[in-house]
Amino acid sequence: MAEDGLITCYKGGLVLKGGSLVQKDIWVRAGRVVEPQELFFRDRRAPSFYFDCSNHIVAPGFIDVQINGGFGVDFSKLRPGGVAEGVASVARGLLEHGVTAFCPTIITSGADYYASILPEMRVSEGGSHGAAVLGVHVEGPFISREKKGAHPEQFIQSLLSPGAVVRTYGCLDNVRVVTLAPELEGAQHTIRWLSRKKGVVVSLGHSMADLTTAEHAVNSGASLITHLFNAMLPFHHRDPGIVGLLTSQSVGDAPVYYSLIVDGNHTHETVQRIAHKAHPEGLEFGSLPVKTCVVLVTDAMAGMGVRSGDVRGGQEESRFSLGEGGRVEVSGGAVRLAGTSTLAGSVATMDECVRHFRRATACTEAVALEAASLHPARVLGLEDSRGQLEKGARADIVVLDRDLNVQGTFIAGHPVWSLPGSRMHREQQRFSNLHT
Amino acid sequence: MCSAGSTPLGMYRKLVEFHKEGKLSFQYIKTFNMDEYVGIPDDHPESYHTYMWQNLFQHIDIDPTNVHILDGNAQNLQKECDDFEQSIKDAGGVDLFVGGIGPDGHIAFNEPGSSLVSRTRIKSLAVDTIQANARFFGGNVGQVPTMALTVGVGTVMDAREVMILITGSHKAFALYKAIEEGLNHMWTVSAFQQHPKTLFVCDEDATLELRVKTVKYFKGLMDVHNKLVQDPYLD
C-alpha cells in the first residue's frame, strides 16, 4: 500500500466533475483526493508519481447497489461460513468492470437464510483484494406475490411491521437497502421506521402499488425505486403507478432515485429515453423541484462475468439458479426462469450498462458516468466520500477511454486492476515497480 | 520575480507551452511574486496564489519549495514582508523581474506617491485600484481588499534585470510617463529609468502617447533586439 506521505497525480485526463468532463489533474494523498493548490502552497508538496491519463476519462469508481452475484457466486445461495469467500470473489471480479463499491443483494429468502448469512456479509473497505462492500441490499421478502418475478413464492411475506422486519432479517447492522412493496399492510409505518430510525434506504419494487400509495411511501421516507418498469404495474395514463413518481409533484423535496437495469433486455431503449428525458439530471419541473435521478444497477446474477458462455448445461443447473427460485437460462444476454419469459436478473457488467445507457439515451459521457457513481453514492448518503472526486473523497477511481471502456481501476489511490496491454497497464506497473 | 494580472497571461501561456514541448524545465527556477492581497484566503479565486497556480504552477515542474508568495493572512504582516526580503537575499537576489503596470504607472502595488526606495511592506490600495478590481469581486467595491503586501520599488531596483510589459492604449499615457518624462514618484514605474538593465516590452497601442522620434528610434533597434532573442537552435 502506498505510504501516507506519497502524493500521486492523475495527469492530463478529462475528469468527471459537476455533470461534465473537465481537463484537470487529480492529486491523491493517503488514499484521499486532495486540493492541489492547497498542498502546493501550504504543505509545499508536489506529486512524486504521475499517472499519464491524457486522452482518458478519469471518473469516480462505479457503485452497484443491486447485484445478486456474479463470477459463479449467488449471494442468495451461500453456505454459512462461505459468505466472506463468496463475497470476496465477486468483489475481486468487479474491479475489472470499474466497480469499486457495491451492495451484495439477497433476493427473497427464508428467515433462517437471513439469520445465518446477513451477520457474515459485513461492510468492508475496498482494496487490491476487491471492491468495498457498502452493506447488503435485501430485495424481499416483503413484496407482492403478483410481481414476484423470479423470487421464490414460498418465502414471500405480506404483512409488514418493524417486528416482522426484525424477525425476518434478524440484525439490521449489515443492511443498507431494503426493497419492499409499499401497498402491503403496515408498509408505510415500517418505511418510516426503517428510513428514519434505522438509517436504511427504502426502495420500492416488486409491487402492485398505485401512484398514491407510491407517493405516500416516498413521503414516509422511501428514496429509491427498484429496477424501474420491471416488477411493477406498467405505466397507465390514468394511474401511472410507481412510474408516475418520475414526474409527481406530491413528493415534497425528498429526492427520488430510480434504478435502471440497462442491459438491453430489461427496459426497451425507448423507455430508457422516456425515463431519462423526464429528468436527465433532476431538473426543476414547473415550480416544484422534482429530483428523480437515474441510478444504474446491473441486477447481475451468478452468470455475470462467467466467460464459458454455456451456462445452460445440466451440471450448471445449481450454479445458475437464482436463490431458491429455481433454474434459470442465459441466452442472448438475457437471464430467464427456465421455460418462462420471466427475467431473472442480468449478466450485464456495470461498464456495459454505462456504455449501453449512453448509447440508448444519447446522453453525454459525464451523465452516464454519474448515473453509475454520483447518483448511487447519493442514494446511500455517501456522496461526501464516494461518487465524486472532490477534496476529501476516497480516491476510488476508474480510468476509461473515450468510448467508456475501462482501462484501469484504483482503490484508495492504489492500482487494483488494469487492462492488459493498455497504457494504463504500463502506468500501473511503473507505479508498482517504484512503490512496492 | 513575477506578477499576476492580465498583462503577463500570454507570457505564462507561452512558458507552459515551452514546458509541455519539453523545451523548458522549471526544476531549478525560484520564483518570488511581487504582491498579494491582505485578508482574502489564498485559495480565493482572486488571490494571486490562485492566479499563479492556475496560470503557471499547476502546469509546470517547479518545486513548491522554490515558490515564494507573500502571505496576506500572516499574523504579523510586517514580519512576513521582512522575511520575504530576507528570502530574496538568501536566494542570491533576483535575476529577472517581469511585471506589468497599472494605467497610473504603478509597479506592483506601489501606488502613485510611493517612495522610490521602498522595500516590501503593507500598502493601502488607491481608490482607483479598488474600483478597478471590483469587477473581479462580483462588482461589489465592499468585497475588494483594501490592503496588500507588495515588494517596494527599491526591491525591484535590486533585480539584475527588469522587464516591464505594457499593452493597450489605456496604458499609453503611463508608458509616456515612464520613459519620456523624468523620475516621478507619482508614476512609480519611471524609477526604472535609473536601472542599468531595463527592458520595456510594449505593443503598438501602448506607444500612442509617445513622440514619433521615440517610437522610431526604438523600432530602429528591433533588428538588433530580435537577434538577441531569436531561438539559438534555429539553424
From TrEMBL, chain A:
What remark does the entry make about the cofactor? Binds 1 divalent metal cation per subunit.
UniProt-listed Enzyme Commission number(s): 3.5.1.25
Query: Which reactions does this protein catalyse?
Result: N-acetyl-D-glucosamine 6-phosphate + H2O = D-glucosamine 6-phosphate + acetate
Xref: CDD domains: NagA (cd00854)
Residue ranges constituting the Amidohydrolase-related domain according to the UniProt record: 57-416
Residues reported to bind Zn(2+): 139, 206, 227
Task: Please provide the Gene Ontology terms (biological process) for this protein.
Answer: N-acetylglucosamine catabolic process; N-acetylneuraminate catabolic process; negative regulation of UDP-N-acetylglucosamine biosynthetic process
GO molecular function (one)? N-acetylglucosamine-6-phosphate deacetylase activity
Top EC class of this enzyme:
hydrolase
Q: Where does substrate bind?
A: 150, 230-231, 238, 266, 343-345
Q: Which UniProt keywords apply?
A: Carbohydrate metabolism, Hydrolase, Metal-binding
The protein's required cofactor(s) are namely: a divalent metal cation
> What residues make up the catalytic site?
299 (proton donor/acceptor)
Please give the family membership noted in the entry.
Belongs to the metallo-dependent hydrolases superfamily. NagA family.
Q: Supply the name of the protein.
A: N-acetylglucosamine-6-phosphate deacetylase
TrEMBL record, chain B:
Location, primary (coarse class): cytoplasm
Q: Which residue ranges does the record assign to the Glucosamine/galactosamine-6-phosphate isomerase domain?
A: 3-195
Provide the catalytic activity annotation. Answer: alpha-D-glucosamine 6-phosphate + H2O = beta-D-fructose 6-phosphate + NH4(+)
Q: Name one Pfam family in it.
A: Glucosamine_iso
Which of UniProt's keywords are assigned here?
Carbohydrate metabolism, Cytoplasm, Hydrolase, Isomerase
Its EC number(s): 3.5.99.6
Q: Does the keyword RNA-binding apply?
A: no
Q: Which cellular component terms (GO) are annotated to the entry?
A: cytoplasm
Q: Where in the cell is it found?
A: Cytoplasm
Give me any GO biological process, just one: glucosamine catabolic process
- CDD domains (UniProt xref): GlcN6P_deaminase (cd01399)
Molecular-function GO terms, alphabetical: glucosamine-6-phosphate deaminase activity; identical protein binding; isomerase activity
Q: Which domain of life is it from?
A: Eukaryota
PANTHER family per the UniProt record, alphabetical: GLUCOSAMINE-6-PHOSPHATE ISOMERASE
Q: Which family does it belong to?
A: Belongs to the glucosamine/galactosamine-6-phosphate isomerase family.
State the oligomer form and interacting partners: Homohexamer.
- Name of this chain's protein: Glucosamine-6-phosphate isomerase
